[in-house]
Amino acid sequence: MVPAGNFMMGSPEGLGDYKERPQHEVTISKPFAVGGYEVTFAQWDACVVAGGCPKAPDSGWGRGQRPVVNVSWDDARQYAVWLARLTGKDYRLLSEAEWEYAARAGAPTAYTWGDKVVSGNANRLDDGTTTGASLR
Description:
Layout: E1 5-9, E2 24-28, H1 41-49, H2 73-87, H3 96-104
Antiparallel strand pairs: 1-2
């Protein structure tokens, strides 16, 4: 569960992408639940077999318990709708604000560990390198 609260959404001047500015305060008025792990190919493929989702190629990474890749926002929404029907519970995708609020984990900085990219703290391809580290 992620508690209700306020946070500064977006990036401050000089950090992040221009599309993330201006930084502004957002209120999350109600607590919400979010999955602790990515949807796996095994979970996704169950939706495919049931006719609720399109098949997703694994691009050679493998399937099974690996996180599903190559799905669009609409595909992911279809999965949430299928899961809700299957379980009788309310599932949906997070809003952009909810996702950022949960990902920040209360940190006021650009990243949960601070304002600078540090080797081992992120997978980043935009700077030409990748560390292979997890964000968890």
